[in-house]
Design a protein that fits this description.
By secondary structure, this protein is of the alpha+beta class. The chain is about 35% helix and about 25% strand.
Length: about 650
Amino acid sequence: MVVRGSVEQSRERLVALVLLLQRAHQYGALSQEEILRELTVDEFPVSAKGPRKVRAYEGADATVRQKFERDKARIRDLGFVIETVERDDGSVGYRVDPASGYAPPLYFNDREARVVALALRFCGFGQSGAFSVFSETPATDGALAASNYYTPVVRALKLRRVLSFEYYSSTRKIRVVEPLVVDVVRGVAYLVARVRGTEEIKGYRFSRMTSMPEVLADTFSVDDETLENARAWRPEYQKSPRPLDVVVSTSADYAELLVRQYPGALTAQKRNRVEVGITFDGPGSALRFALDAADRVRVEAPKSLRDDLATWLRGVNRGDAPPLDDIVFPPQGGQDVLGQTLRLLHAVYASDGGLRVSELARRFGLEPDHVRLIMDRLVSLEPMNATTDGTGRFPAHVIKECDDWDDEAHDDSLYLADFSDLPEGAPEPSALMWRDLFELNLALHEAARVYHDDALTSAMRKIEDVTSSFLHVESNDVDDSLVTIERAVRDGAQLKIEYVAVESDEVQVRLISPREIRVLNGHTYVRAYCDTRRDWRTFRLDRVTAVLATSPGVPTPPDTVEGWLTRVGDDGGEVVVVLEPPNRWHFETLPGAQWSTVRDGRLAVKFHVTSASFLDHLMVKCGPGAVVATPAYRRAGHELAKRMLAAL
């Protein structure tokens, strides 16, 4: 990996600034003039035998101040609160409260640490999530999208503080709310909150927040009844719920799958088809069901749903899109260098015996030389050393041990946290941000559906004691099949299952050897060798209609696919879709998606698809407000929408 000097200079400056402002919270706020005049970093690239200290902010006055404001914005984007205070001399000073980003230290015993690693493997959050802090193995595919927005939201929930954030629904505007609970429904995270000054409870999708939530000074109280109402909230919640009874006709096989997915559904045989009656919370959820089922069902009633569906289908992938050459996506190489560095630092904080170069490289997907470059600079950071008493008052507490100091550039050095110079009574820095606690808690809740272990319960209790038990998770998966399949994974057994493949309404009998279970975007997937197809396949649990038999395991060829859960992110044809901002949620769960904004204010998303059928169904679910810009896929969804219209 070639590390660009400008990136490393930016990393050094940002890390120095954020850690320095954290120090300032304890020792006194720093003015902009002091920081611009005196903050120093190591020169990069090194032009002499040893590193040379240079000013972090150099250049014309206007340029320097613009850079400083951009750096402050990037620090805020990680969830840290930069406080502006008036100093004794009347000048304005800045400081960062570490508690705005970092949760109180949390310690797991050996059994709890084991189940935490297990849960994160089952429901991981990728390299940018909590997985890399706890797991000794490389980061897995991400499950729910990691978001820095979780940090201020979870902190506000803990403190019972009011939140303010910009939000996009029909219009983009500032919302001021009293946060009550985070609800994860079918893999989508919502903040459920009471609108400030009212008794109205509403849900806000995290993916529609367009600014970092701000934790305000105002506090609020809440009674048990209000909290219960918040936990009962669903995406289709209305002040006057209007349940909608829907009748569809489908094949016998697909009807059986629907009955398993929707407890309480009723069936009736009608000639060679089966009618299924399902009650939905409202017309919105009923429409989404019909779109997801696509041409596998025919909507029989009510007429209002048929009319809504017809209007929706006529708008599938219709409209104008700008030429591809006019859509510019930011380079993927522009990583969040500050966030990456802080996660390396706090992975070391969380490790009792320290971490070696090779371990950090594996966890974070970095080259060893890149790890050395980052960690060595954390070891040597002494910003504003001339005006303070040095590293003893600077909170990057890392020391380095080498087995071979003569060959330091190639040594598998050990990096250790050293808190011996902390002020008396000061707590050790936490290795967990508030968002990490959200991710850990969610992973533990998901894992508890499969694994029964007292350590899971005690680990969740520790997290919820810190966060005031804020999380509610709803899953549609059928646990009976999940437990049976998990047992087969553990025992290396072979299973005979009935399975309804994607975009099919017929049951197929498969003989599989399951090897791993993972959760992605609210669905549980099983990686297995399919003896019926003589290949490794990925099965979605809610499409397994029955486990017919269990038998002893048989030898299987190795699985050569890495990152099987999110393989769609790398393979297949490249597609660009232009969409209205409220439709963004349809695409956020796609692995590897890149985003941009086009001139007219719409969004553009670039991703890969492994099959035209997948894109057809995606565009049907998007409906009006999304259009494919890639010429090769310009008619995606048209034929499927036409078949669904004909069935009406």
